[in-house]
Amino acid sequence: MSNLDTAPVESTCPAVALGTSPAPVTLSPREVPLGGPRAMAVRRTLPHRDIRTIGAWCFVDDYGPTTPADPPMAVPPHPHCGLQTVTWLLSGSVAHRDSTGGAGTVRPGELNLMTSGWGITHSEYSAQGTPVRGVQMWVALPDQSRHVQPGFAHHDDLPRLNLATVDGPDLDAVVILGSFAGATSPARCYSPLVGVELTATGASEAVLALDPAFEYGILVLDDPVSVAGESLQPGDLRYLGWGADTVTLRTTGPATVLLLGGEPMAEDLLMWWNFVGRNHDDIVSARADWESGAARFGEVVGDPAERLRAPILPNATLRPRPGRRLPPPGGNSTT
Ligand code: MN
């Protein structure tokens, strides 16, 4: 889906300086003002004023549920660059089409993963009368991969695990990206990261194994949980920092959360609208290429809908704050 904010501002995501991890903090969602004909509640937790990225995860929008009476979700052709979009649903279905000819309908438990590389255009539509509830997330591509060929993959073959708990029924886990508890997602990512959906079917206490080299966040979906003793409400994203090898998740009943993690981002990012770049000029040229219809972004095959226009770019020139430069995280991680 698109960043539907009608007046987006450039958002700097400076490279994370390693050393002592930031203290855990709860990132409360903010409602994003949406323009256009749709009025869908969107709760954004990344980027957040306090925490800009979690690993390469740089954008988290939690949306819906819509009701059967609402118009379907309709996001006409719009561009992306410098990122992968990770579409994860809790209910409903969303049909995707893009400028590479990629197409696929995603349903709960499945992944639509679009790699924008240098430039891609896509559109997304939910079915009429079918409520939708989901999470739209972006993963920033590291510098060495941000100009890769665009592409799309639909995965309905993600690893599913039953995780033993300390107390209560097993947790159901789906490994969306990366590796967790000995299982590895087949989805391709370009930096060390992980995304897992964890579902408790009843009151439970579980100790989750973490990679101390990763920083993590836990996004709380529709039911309150506690993480490391901290009570959280639906919509909250609890940032955990790095250096821990376990975290305790408690639920008082059925609940679903997303565990997001990765090696702290070693590069400065600049995000605006649907683009992730490294500096203001990257953003200016991406916007100009989109608005001029340049071949860079192509056209969605088989979607005659009018394209979304880019918002006005604020005049101010933002630059990413200088951060500690580290070697880029290690290359492609496939499998
Ligand atoms: Mn999109």
Describe this structure in words.
The strands form 6 sheets. A 7-stranded antiparallel sheet has the order 2-23-20-25-18-15-14, with no helix packed on it. Strands 3-4-5-12-7-10-13 form a 7-stranded antiparallel sheet, with no helix packed on it. It has a 4-stranded antiparallel sheet with strand order 6-11-8-9, with no helix packed on it. The protein has one helix spanning about 280-290; strands at about 10-15, 25, 30, 40-45, 55-65, 75-80, 85-90, 95-100, 105, 110-115, 120-125, 135-140, 150-155, 160-165, 170-175, 180, 185, 195-200, 205-210, 215-220, 225, 230, 235-240, 245-250, 255-260, 270, 275. The protein contains 1 helix and 27 strands. It has a single domain (about 25-265), classed as Jelly Rolls (Sandwich), CATH 2.60.120.10. It has about 325 residues and is mainly beta. The longest helix has 12 residues, at about 280-290. Helices cover about 5% and strands about 40% of the residues. The model is unreliable at about 320-335 (pLDDT under 50). Manganese (II) ion (MN) binds near residues 2 and 78.
Q: Nutshell version of this structure?
A:
The chain has 335 residues and is mainly beta. Helix content is 4%, strand content 41%.
